[in-house]
């Protein structure tokens, strides 16, 4: 279980919005790595990507505090308000892009 994260109650059963960053796909941009919002399923690009759409989504929707990696084989979580990287023991494998 996540030590210190107080937002696990916001997690929903989500469906990915796209196979890539939703906003980058709309504007024809590229990304490095993908993240998925665990409140609504919005797929966004990471902070190492030029547009940082995952973090921008959280700034627009502060009630969506948790993301997971949307990369194959990565199961980590990130809590924006708590600034915490963690794993959730017993959680289903993270969804990932094809």
Quick description:
It contains 2 helices and 5 strands; from the N terminus they run αββαβββ.
Written overview of the protein:
By secondary structure, the protein is an alpha+beta fold. The chain has a single domain (8-86), classed as 2-Layer Sandwich (Herpes Virus-1), CATH 3.30.40.10. 14% of the residues lie in helices and 17% in strands. It has helices at residues 22-27, 53-60; strands at residues 34-37, 43-45, 66-69, 77-79, 84-86. A 5-stranded antiparallel beta sheet has the order 2-1-3-4-5. The chain is globular. 29% of the residues are buried. The model has no long low-confidence stretch (mean pLDDT 94).
Please write the string of helix (H) and strand (E) elements. Answer: HEEHEEE
If strands are numbered along the chain, what order do they take across the biggest sheet? 2-1-3-4-5
The CATH class assignment is: Alpha Beta
Question: What portion of the residues fall into strands of 2 or more residues?
Answer: 15-25%
Gyration radius from CA atoms, angstroms? 12 Å
Number of helical segments with 4 or more residues:
2
Structural class: alpha+beta
Helix content: 10-25%
Total number of domains:
1
Separation of termini?
28 Å
Question: Which blocks of ≥5 consecutive residues have pLDDT under 50?
Answer: none
- Would you tell me the overall average pLDDT? 94
Return the CATH topology. Answer: Herpes Virus-1
Overall spatial form: globular
């Amino acid at each position: 279980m996540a030590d210190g994260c107080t937002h696990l109650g916001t997690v929903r059963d989500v469906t990915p919005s796209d196979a890539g960053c939703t906003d980058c796909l709309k504007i024809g941009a590229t990304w490095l790595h993908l993240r998925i919002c665990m409140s609504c399923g919005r797929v966004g690009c990471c902070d190492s990507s030029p547009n940082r759409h995952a973090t921008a989504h959280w700034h627009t929707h502060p009630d969506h505090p948790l993301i997971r990696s949307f990369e194959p084989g990565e199961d980590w979580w990130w809590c924006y308000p708590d600034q915490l990287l963690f794993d959730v023991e017993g959680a289903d494998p993270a969804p990932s892009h094809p």
